């Protein structure tokens, strides 16, 4: 099975799952949701899955979902912030007035 990013609102995080049956959690991106904004706080990929590009897939999936939901993104998490910096097409998700705060 191809890795998939799934929102787990009960845990306040996006998870990337992989494995033959799609049940193995390879990593997650924690967030706080509030009044039209999603603040990404921490992203982690299990060391067993390092070097496979799953962090990028997780970031893209989470940001694509946030954009589709019309949420403004606050990238407090250094990984998410750095990923947006490398993919400027996602910078519009961060409110313009707050981009300088995040170095975007």
Automatic annotation (TrEMBL):
<protein>
    <submittedName>
        <fullName>GNAT family N-acetyltransferase</fullName>
        <ecNumber>2.3.1.-</ecNumber>
    </submittedName>
</protein>
<dbReference type="InterPro" id="IPR016181">
    <property type="entry name" value="Acyl_CoA_acyltransferase"/>
</dbReference>
<dbReference type="Pfam" id="PF14542">
    <property type="entry name" value="Acetyltransf_CG"/>
</dbReference>
<dbReference type="InterPro" id="IPR031165">
    <property type="entry name" value="GNAT_YJDJ"/>
</dbReference>
<feature type="domain" description="N-acetyltransferase">
    <location>
        <begin position="6"/>
        <end position="95"/>
    </location>
</feature>
<keyword id="KW-0808">Transferase</keyword>
<keyword id="KW-0012">Acyltransferase</keyword>
<dbReference type="GO" id="GO:0016746">
    <property type="term" value="F:acyltransferase activity"/>
</dbReference>
<dbReference type="InterPro" id="IPR045057">
    <property type="entry name" value="Gcn5-rel_NAT"/>
</dbReference>
